[in-house]
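Anyone up for a design puzzle?
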């Protein structure tokens, strides 16, 4: 799991209001992309990210591969209040 900058700024059609997204990395550069993602292989310097809720997730199924520069941090464990 990683935290990444939302590639679609707030106000752009299809964007989320949050500036950050938490997603799973499904494929890295050189690997084949999952069936629901456009393209055949992940380009250099990019990753494919997928959310746990495909029906409502803004992820690589809609955005394509994401530049590594958008990845901010790796998630190590879930935080609770």
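Challenge accepted. My sequence:
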């Amino acid at each position: 799991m990683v935290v990444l900058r939302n590639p679609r700024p707030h106000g752009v059609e299809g964007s989320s209001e949050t500036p950050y997204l938490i997603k799973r990395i499904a494929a890295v550069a050189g690997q084949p992309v999952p069936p629901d993602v456009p393209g055949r292989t992940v380009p250099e310097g990019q990753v494919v990210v997928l959310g746990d809720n495909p029906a409502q997730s803004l992820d690589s199924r809609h955005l394509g591969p994401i530049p590594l520069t958008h990845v901010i941090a790796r998630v190590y464990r879930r935080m609770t209040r």
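A detail worth pointing out: Strands lie at 2-5, 20-28, 46-50, 66-67, 71-74.
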